[in-house]
Write a structure and sequence with these properties.
alpha+beta; 122 residues; HU Protein, Chain A; 5 strands; 3 helices; 22% strand
Amino acid sequence: MTVTKTQLADAYSAALTKEFGDEWDCEFSRRDANRFLDLLWPVVSELALKDTKKKKPGSVPLGHLGRLKMRFKAATKSRKGTNPFTGEPATFKAKPATLQPRFTAGKALKDEASKYFKKKMK
């Protein structure tokens, strides 16, 4: 099942209300949760891209979920090869250097997935 942003905002607003509702004397709406989620994105992306001038770019921990890392992929030159379907010679285009985001799941997320899988397999 793929979760939509609306479903994520609903679950997040319920969790925020449960955690902080009594303390802050308020109830969080879906709109509030969407604003929190939208504010999180620029912070995480800025931190992940902060040290991209170095050979090894930065990484951002996301709590128990895991870690977001930026991976530097070097440029490639154009090269000659053969088309595997027709056997004809072909030239493959050069590709520029890029930064690619990679997510590594944390131990807590892996443990929860393992528990869920074991429960479902019984």
